[in-house]
Amino acid sequence: MTTLTTATTLHTAAVGTAHTRVEGRDKVTGAARYAGEVPFADLAHGWLVLSTVARGRIRDLDTESVLAMPGVLAVLEHRNAPRLTTDYTGLLGMRPDPTCAVFQHDRVPHLGWPVALVVAETSEQAREAAETLVVRYEQEPHDVGFGAGHPDAYAADGHIPAVTEKGDLDAGLAAAAVVVDAEYTTPEEHHHPMEPHAATARWDGGRLEVTDSNQGATWVVGELANLFSLDPAAVRVRSEHVGGGFGSKGVRAHQVAAVMAATVLQRPVRVVLTRRQMFSLAGYRSPTIQHVRLGADTDGHLRALAHHSLNQTATGYEFVEASAGVARVMYDADAHHTANRVVRLDIPSPTFMRAPGEAPGSFALEAALDELAEKCGIDPIELRLRNEPDRGPVSGLPFAGRNLAACFREGARRFGWAERDPRPGLRREGRLLLGTGMAAASFPAGAMPSTASATAHPDGTFTVRISAADIGTGARTALTLVAADALRTSPERVHVRIGDSDFGPAMIAGGSMGTRSWAWAIRVAAAELCERLALGTGIPPEGITVRSDTTAAIGALAAAERHSYGAQFAEVSVDPGTGEVRVRRMLGIFAAGQIINPLTARNQLRGGMIWGISMALHEEAVRDRASGGHVGADLAGYHVATHADVPRIEADWIEDTDPDDPVGIKGIGEIGIVGAAAAVANAVWHATGVRHRSLPIRPDRIL
Ligand code: MOS
């Protein structure tokens, strides 16, 4: 037995200090293995075959000739695949997405639907055979035509209620001195994390083990256990390193297909999605059509506000891109109406994509506010300050910290907003037109129950285990800092292990709630461990381990409007000859609770802002109505912001804390993109005098 010395050693608070990623060296040297790289003996490889029609039935698959090809072990399809249970409600009350519950029937509901998995000894053999497989369809007419006038649109709840209504909207608009009534559109957008989706499934004794790239092992365990009617304790999911997720890495077709094949062949099977396959299998952000109406007094005070949004979803699955939700938090009015509607089309279901709802919703709402500021002749920041609500406009709940005004003040000071001439189209630099714009941002802050364990070792070090996912955000490092403070030691003495469902249930890396939820569980385990160590009984060789579960603590949180806030600023140049828009600089100032690691937090916020530039100017997945599929389903055809598009871009924050969180965290996962596209679009108006209500602001649309 050794007595612990570190508990009494002085240390500096780690939370709030910059720390490079604890796994950074492993990542840059290649020692870090991603899901598609982890070696397994006797590994077989599956390759998905996707439908080439957008609607119909599979009449025949010519599997025999493919089975005769070199190395081919099996072809799984609807006639021979294991049956799945799909009648369940999983995480977040969600039903399984039919695109992920593969090979259960002969119907084809969208182009790029999985119709078979070819399994072979090597990936090359599987691909060769998959591309050779002849599939015959009975084709039916399809409808992929998203439009405002679609007759089948209906109001739909997603993770929030579909409709909120307060006051008489028509009367409010009729009585208003100033009215903005405009339609805004955003296109279909795709996540495309750098690491494509990949999973290896194998049976290990009586347990199913899946090595995967996902946003939450607990989530994937739950879905696979449901789908395959397994005891969750008989499923283990591991995801040590994840190269990006953004909402796309839950359970998708590849994990399910890999488990099926591993079950049938009784050997490990890996399935990796190609970039092109990800366009129909990974989920995406629906296009939106948003109608915003604002009625105000001449002093800018809002009297009426309506925000209605329409998105597309699949015929067999309802997903709501809840864009009208942001208005329920940001601005109040006597008459206040919001609604989210969907229309079902012959397309894959959209899914969560970074700041689902808030990203497109803030574009429409914050652009409309800019139009109102222009009409009222009021500075856009002043207009927003005059409309700061003191309670949740729809919920009526008090705000648990709303430091938006402070973000405006700090942002305006640093951006040089005071010198701005509000008139559009006046500033020139050579042939370029220059303009600046701003927008507000918010994103819900919350925590979900998690479990963690903390172990004290005799050598004075600690191991923390939690089934968290670091999807590239730096979560593992943030949790190391949180754990170090909670254990009253230095980060170097703490080893945080994540990405293994055997560590117990935990929140996903999603909803901007991951780090906060995990940190809470770690704090509780660490505090109790410290108490045990204070008894001074010494530490046995196997260490002392304490487990935590935050279910009760989080359940006891008082109801309030909890959000992170931000102010986004952009300066653009517009070439009126070519239509080229260049963002010159961007500044985002956030009130997002306690920042754990300034280094990775800044990366996270800037990444969101860069995505906002991309959303404003580049991203657009174009669907071909004739085929029902995408035009240019690759990263050559789908444009994203690259280094050359990213100018001076600063993200910073003001002092802010959540009083109800043990560490003061609110969450920074998604807010970086919120309002960013609106700030760019508002700057384009300021440069040119032309309002752009449809994203992206392509060169051919500019003037
Ligand atoms: Mo996020 S869209 O909750 O990964």
Description:
InterPro entries: Ald_Oxase/Xan_DH_a/b (IPR000674), Ald_Oxase/Xan_DH_a/b_sf (IPR036856), Ald_Oxase/xanthine_DH-like (IPR016208), AldOxase/xan_DH_MoCoBD1 (IPR008274), AldOxase/xan_DH_MoCoBD2 (IPR046867), AldOxase/xan_DH_Mopterin-bd_sf (IPR037165). This is Xanthine dehydrogenase family protein molybdopterin-binding subunit. It comes from Streptomyces mauvecolor. Pfam families: Ald_Xan_dh_C, MoCoBD_1, MoCoBD_2. Keywords: Molybdenum, Oxidoreductase. With 703 residues, this protein is of the alpha+beta class. It has three domains: 6-32 and 448-555, 2-Layer Sandwich (Aldehyde Oxidoreductase, domain 4), CATH 3.30.365.10; 44-140 and 195-281, Aldehyde Oxidoreductase, domain 3, CATH 3.90.1170.50; 399-443 and 558-703, Aldehyde Oxidoreductase, domain 4 (2-Layer Sandwich), CATH 3.30.365.10. 24% of the residues lie in helices and 24% in strands. The protein has 16 helices and 27 strands. Strands 3-5-1-13-10-11-12 form a seven-stranded mixed β-sheet, sandwiched between helices. Strands 7, 8, 9, 14, 15 and 16 form a six-stranded mixed β-sheet that branches. Helix 9 (358-376) runs parallel beside helix 16 and helix 15 crosses helix 16 (676-688). It starts with 23 loop residues before the first helix and ends in a 15-residue tail after the last helix. 57% of the residues are buried. The model is unreliable at 1-10 (pLDDT under 50). The structure holds dioxothiomolybdenum(VI) ion (MOS). Dioxothiomolybdenum(VI) ion binds next to loops.
